[in-house]
Structures are given as C-alpha cells and as structure tokens.
C-alpha cells in the first residue's frame, strides 16, 4: 500500500510529469504525421497535377477518336475503289 502512496506522492510533487509530457509529445507527433500523410495522399490523388493529367488524357482520347473516324471513312473510300478496280481486272 505504501508503494501506491509513494507513487501518488511523486505525481503530486511533479516528479512523474516527465513521462506524461513525453507521452503527449509522442501523441502530438503522431497526429501531425497522420495529418501530414493524409494531406500528401490527397494532393497526389486529387491535386492539380493529377487534374492536368486527366484533362490531357481526355483531350488525347477525343483527338484519337476523331482520327479513327476519319481513317475509317478514308478506308471505306479506298476499299470501294479497290473493289471497283478488281472487278475491271481482265485476269479474273
């Protein structure tokens, strides 16, 4: 029982405060690290550079879709011309 009283007496006198201050310092450091990491991940996923990449990829997709459509049209014209020439070929 005297051990408990001695420990209580140390806390009242302020001798046990070093441990609690260290605990709070570790806790605050952990909170700052978690918040900082969260902000970093948020910036990586949703930041300006990610948005720029997304917009550039969408623009590239639109450009490629237009090019595909024009090449399909050109291919249809060339195939029509090819088949017309094949039917006129006397070797057949």
Task: Write down the secondary-structure element order.
Answer: HHH
Number of domains: 2
Could you tell me the strand content as a percent range? under 5%
For the record, give the distance between the C-alpha atoms at the N and C termini, rounded to a whole number. 115 Å
Counting helices, strands and paired strands, the structural category is: mainly alpha
**Low-pLDDT runs:** none
User: What's the overall geometry?
Assistant: rod-shaped
* Number of DSSP helical runs: 3
- Largest sheet data: none
Measured as a percent range, the helix fraction is over 70%
Number of strands: 0
- Output mean pLDDT: 85
**Radius of gyration, rounded?**
37 Å
Protein name: Septum formation initiator
Transmembrane segments: 21-41
Organism: Sulfurospirillum deleyianum (strain ATCC 51133 / DSM 6946 / 5175)
Keywords: Coiled coil, Membrane, Transmembrane, Transmembrane helix
Features:
transmembrane, Septum formation initiator, coiled coil, 2 domains, membrane, mainly alpha, transmembrane helix
Structural summary, described in words:
With 92 residues, the chain is mostly helical. It folds into two domains: 46 residues; 45 residues. 90% of the residues lie in helices and 0% in strands. It has three helices and no strands. Helix 2 runs parallel beside helix 3. The longest helix has 41 residues. It starts with a helix and ends with a helix.
């Amino acid at each position: 029982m005297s051990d408990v009283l001695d420990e209580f007496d140390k806390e009242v006198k302020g001798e046990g405060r070093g441990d609690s201050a260290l605990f709070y310092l570790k806790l605050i450091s952990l909170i700052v690290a978690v918040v900082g990491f969260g902000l970093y991940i948020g910036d990586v996923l949703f930041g300006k550079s990610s948005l720029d990449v997304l917009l550039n990829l969408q623009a590239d997709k639109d450009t490629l879709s237009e090019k595909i459509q024009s090449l399909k049209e050109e291919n249809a014209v060339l195939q029509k011309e090819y088949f017309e020439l094949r039917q006129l070929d006397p070797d057949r």
